[in-house]
Amino acid sequence: MAERPFETDDYLGIFLRDTPMIDTRAPVEFAKGAFPGAVNLPLMTDDERARVGTCYKEQGQTAAIELGHELVQGPVKQARVEAWLEFARAHPDGLLYCFRGGLRSQICQQWLGEAGCDYPRIVGGYKAMRWFLLEQMEQLCHAQPLVILAGRTGVAKTDFLWRWPQSIDLEGRANHRGSAFGRRVGGQPSQIDFENAIAVDLLRCHHRRTEQPVLVEDESHLIGRCVLPQPLKEAMARAPIVVLETSLPARVEHTYTNYILRKLAEWQAHEGEERGFERFAEDLRLSLGRIRKRLGGARYAEMNRLLEQALAAHERGEAQLHRSWIRALLEEYYDPMYRYQLERKADRVRFRGDAQAVADYLQTQMGLRL
């Protein structure tokens, strides 16, 4: 078996292979943005990094390096090396990086080597990989054709999307369902994490089935607080649209399952049964409040009354009343808004139909494969 290289700048291969990575930057850097598959095992804590940075500015590189070694030695150093070794043993095909592929990753690599583990690092580090993904995003959004999956709220667009290997789940990447009620437990990723994940998805779609378009759900420029990258937004605005359709009762049931039953289960798994229900109820009230102005006073008051009735019954173990306010919200708020938005894109609509008809059209006319 050939020896692994000591360093690599094969960014494309790194992302296509979903390579496990040790991110040796400080936690505050990692929180601002990282890559799918990266785990933060820092050389220095935020405080240590800040102190070394101040020393570098005031006394120069040599003094900063000396301070870094003073701060990370003995049991502290041993614990950090052991964490890297544990990752390396679990992921022998992995890599490590720092911000620019410089001193921090070199030190980590050296200490791993001294512990008997030769582990490759990424040339250029985070900065080079980030620029690579931004450039690829720009290029692929011009070169890779897209197909937009549209449909009224509750038609199960995401479920349909998941059936297709050549697709990108933008709402999944944003950890948000895309509407005023779309907040999910766990919060949203940073904007940079969101952009990086989408760029990697585009890369993988392009290199897996170059000849096929990529299916994405119709989204506004905001998914929660995550902003669609500008190149993708522009590409989506040019792409043909297929519209998924189903009956109103089916849409009510799908919305009830996702926004009531599954959302409550998520909150209770995270917070416990009693506190989870409280957070779930608070989530629904806040979500309705976000669209209060657009509903208007009288309509909001009625929706709120139905919601409170449903929550009271739900707390007693009877969740079915939620269907009442869900149906009213779909018919009186989401459907008119959807009609207005789709009318503005009518020239790009290529097909409308139920799930089977849309699937058949995508395969026969758009070249997608299940």
Describe the structure concisely:
The protein is of the alpha/beta class.
Structure characterization notes:
There is one protein chain. The protein has 370 residues and is of the alpha/beta class. The protein has two domains: 7-130, Rhodanese-like domain (Oxidized Rhodanese, domain 1, 3-Layer(aba) Sandwich); 145-370, 3-Layer(aba) Sandwich (Rossmann fold), CATH 3.40.50. It is 59% helix and 10% strand. The chain is built from 17 helices and twelve strands. A five-stranded parallel β-sheet has the order 7-8-6-11-12, sandwiched between helices. A three-stranded parallel β-sheet has the order 3-2-4, covered by helices on one side. α7 (125-143) crosses α10 (191-208), α12 (248-271) crosses α13 (273-290) and α13 runs antiparallel to α15. It is globular and about 70 Å long. The model has no long low-confidence stretch (mean pLDDT 94).
